[in-house]
Amino acid sequence: MSTKPQRVERLGQTCYLVICTDAPDTDHLRLDHMVGHLNHVEEHWQRYVTAGPIREPGKTALVGSVFLVLADSLEDCKALMAGDPYLTCGLYGSVEYKELTNSIGQYIGGKIWESPEALLAQIKG
Fold it and tell me: 14-102 has which fold?
């Protein structure tokens, strides 16, 4: 049974989507630095909406990691990520940072708009 999501307030902090793609031939780095990485994310677990490794669809090999990080600024997000051994050991060949508006879903407990019409009016100004 599907129910309509309730309206909730927007999150107070900015959420950053951090997309990390493994550099070629770095599987050993993931294993060598896993304990440090897990210690880091456990220490700061309340800053993550969610995080985890990523794979190509239908494959088992890990190809990177994705983090949804709550932060006061991009610099704050980058400082948190800079403490992660996976970033400092060279595992990731690329790291992208994007701002994400948590608009709907289980984590936020509903949706942030009152109605589609109200959202359109807000966007149009």
Answer: Alpha-Beta Plaits (3.30.70)
Choose among 59, 58, 60, 69: nearest CA to 20: 69
Q: Do 18 and 95 form a contact (C-beta atoms < 8 A)?
A: yes
pLDDT digits (tens, 9 = 90+) for 1-54: 578 899 998 888 999 999 999 999 999 999 999 999 999 999 999 999 999 999
Tell me the torsion sign for CA atoms 76, 34, 87, 67: negative
AA identity, residue 33: H
Domain boundary assignment for the chain: 14-102
- Collapse the DSSP code of 114 into the 3-class scheme (helix H, G, I; strand E, B; otherwise coil) and give the result: coil
Q: What is the pTM assigned to this prediction?
A: 0.89
